[in-house]
Amino acid sequence: MPRHNPYAFATRTAESFVKDELNITALGIDPISIAKQHDILVEAMDDCEDGVSGMLIHAYGKFAIAYATHIKSEGFQNFSVAHELGHYFLPGHIDAVLPPGTSCHQSRAGFVSDDRYEQEADHFAAGLLMPSFLFKPVMVRLGESLDAAQELAALCGTSLTATAIRLQELTDEAVAVIQCSTNRIEFCCMSERMLALRPRRWPKKGDRVPPGTGASYLMADPERVLASERKSRETDGMTWFGGLEDVELFEESIGLGRFGRTLTILTTVDDLADELEDDDCDDGWNRRSR
Ligand SMILES: [Zn+2]
Questions:
Q1: Which of 239, 260, 263 is nearest to 249 (CA)?
Q2: C-alpha torsion 6→29→87→32, nearest 10
Q3: What percent of the chain is predicted at pLDDT more than 70?
Q4: What is the CA radius of gyration of the chain?
Q5: What H or E segment, with its residue span, contains residue 189?
Q6: pLDDT at position 271, please?
């Protein structure tokens, strides 16, 4: 049984919108042109408050989207615009984020906010740019490696982080995705199949990055992160999960350039058929630690 994701409806809303209303049949979905089709003005912002990814503005009876450009990544900017479209299209959002008397909502997109409306808009953005009916067939062909995530990110016009999160959501394989910043874990999300292996510990937000890992090596020198250096190794589950010592894992880490973080993808080396128990893991864990 898949674990309940309270925000799945937002992703599904975007997917049906792409499929049934926009009739889009290929990846590379352009959120700016979707906004324009709906008479929403879209503008780049030169500078904005720290951490703000974009804004939804309502003035003189018209809607506009402004998106941040301090992170020079097309993927980040596309996701920021798609997030604002989430506020525009999801039921109840306009009333919630633009209550009477306000004309501007500031967003923090990219799965960094715990706010319900921000989370819903992020899930909408993921479904809009990476709808499962287009994403999954390509993912099945490319696999779950870091190379595959990079190729999918290029196809979707999305950031590597957003793409890797989507990949672990949709894959049938055992995959964990971990983002770290200044030697601390920011989040770890695991696929259903990885959870079914029952890792002993969930790497949590704020935990120290374990020594000896690729992420720890890259973080030791900011130049490595800036240069998008990569580090790969074979390991077992002990380092990240304090268990699964019998499961051989392949760990691939990369510096995320000016974003200043590292992204790690863990996959299993061997077929897992024997490792999995018949019953699903049902300990109430959500798929993602924050
Ligand atoms: Zn927002």
A1: 239
A2: 170
A3: 91
A4: 19
A5: strand 184-190
A6: 57
Residues 6+ apart with CB under 8 A from 205: 184, 185, 186, 187, 289, 290
| Ligand 1 geometric centre to CA of 48 (Å) | 14
Q: What is the pLDDT of residue 108?
A: 85
Q: Which domains does the chain have, with CATH numbers?
A: 8-129 (1.10.10), 172-289 (3.30.450)
C-alpha to C-alpha distance for 284 and 273, rounded to whole angstroms:
23
Question: Residue 121's beta-bridge partner residues?
Answer: none
Tell me, in angstroms, the distance from the centre of ligand 1 to residue 154's CA: 24
Task: Give the C-alpha separation, 74 to 79, whole Å.
Answer: 8
Q: Rounded to an integer, what is the distance from CA 274 to the centroid of its chain?
A: 30
Q: What is the pTM of this model?
A: 0.87
Cβ–Cβ under 8 Å, residues 68 and 54: yes
Q: What distance in Å separates the CA atoms of residue 123 and residue 117, rounded to the nearest whole number? A: 10
pLDDT digits over 252-283, tens only?
A: 999 999 889 999 999 998 755 454 544 444 44
Tell me how far the alpha carbon of residue 158 lies from the centroid of ligand 1, in angstroms: 17
Ligand 1 centroid distance, CA of 83 (Å) = 6
